[in-house]
Amino acid sequence: MTTGDSSNAGGTEAGQVVVHLDGVRKEYGESTALDGVSLDIRAGEAVAVMGPSGCGKSTLLNMVAGLDRPTSGRVVVNGEDLASMSETGLALFRRRRIGMIFQFFNLLDDLPALDNVALAAQLTGVSVAQARRRALELLDELGIADRRNVYPAALSGGERQRVSVARALMNRPALLLADEPTGALDSHAGEQVMDLLIDLNQIGQTLLIVTHDQRLATRCASRLVEVADGRVVRQRSLERTA
After folding, report:
1. CA 16/CA 26 separation, integer angstroms
2. How many angstroms separate the CA atoms of 58 and 56, rounded?
């Protein structure tokens, strides 16, 4: 798998800090979702975030993606302080520097697979023809080029997640975020998606995965970050299991 040189995704170099959270706190009214989280993720790492429901995992992911802003603390991604950006700037930053894979795919039902993928590049100003060429290359590398003209409703769960992965890789992101990427899949399709994530990381793609699935974490990640009550309570290196 080449995916258009993911080893230099987003212009990052191995070992460079891609994600820097410094004392990040997020409050929703009387509730505290994140309570002083500090975390660095370096280029080429695959980091899994685990913890019980309501512990702050998804909020952390949303902070890194610029989908939400901290009450206090700093979030720096690929050298950009997200607090300094307008909402329009954040949207453009996400399109160009962040790839996102969702549990329930978030594909557009009225577009076939190829156009779902190509749209990610078109939204950054890439021509339709160029976007479709790269989209087809990615679908081919992910083994579903023959499904390029099929609409999401007619794709299997595993195929839809592969389309979602292709879309996330379209703009050669510095960081790939995955929110429960196997949560809506059967065990076979889930294993295939895990293999994809491993392959991507092995060619240099930086990954941040939020999951409840211990097997996903131990198979795909090189570091585990455990979160409880809005705080990072433990970090440890992982040896990938087969």
Report:
1. 26
2. 6
How far CA 235 is from CA of 108, 110, 120, in Å, comes to: 37, 42, 34
Q: Which CATH superfamily is domain 16-237 in?
A: P-loop containing nucleotide triphosphate hydrolases (3.40.50.300)
Q: Token digits for 18?
A: 């891609």
The pTM of the full predicted model, rounded to 2 decimals, is 0.88
Give the residue extent of every domain in the chain.
Answer: 16-237
Q: Which two tokens stand for residue 120?
A: 């990610």
Helix 113-122 to helix 128-141 angle, to the nearest 10 degrees?
130
Residue with tokens 């970050």: 225
98: three-class secondary structure by DSSP? strand
Give the rounded distance of the alpha carbon of 4 from its chain centre. 17
Question: How far, in Å, CA of 133 to CA of 145, rounded?
Answer: 11
Q: How many CB atoms lie within 10 A of CB 23?
A: 13
Pairing mode, strands 98-101 and 17-28:
unpaired
Burial class (CB in 10 A: 0-12, 13-18, 19+), 136: middle
Q: Residue 142 gets which letter from DSSP?
A: T
pLDDT tens track for 31-79: 999 999 999 999 999 999 999 888 999 999 999 999 999 999 999 999 9
- What are the angstrom distances between the C-alpha of 63 and each of 19, 125, 128, 131, 202? 10, 25, 31, 28, 26
- Cβ-Cβ contacts under 8 Å for 226 (sequence gap 6 or more): 49, 50, 51, 232, 233, 234, 235
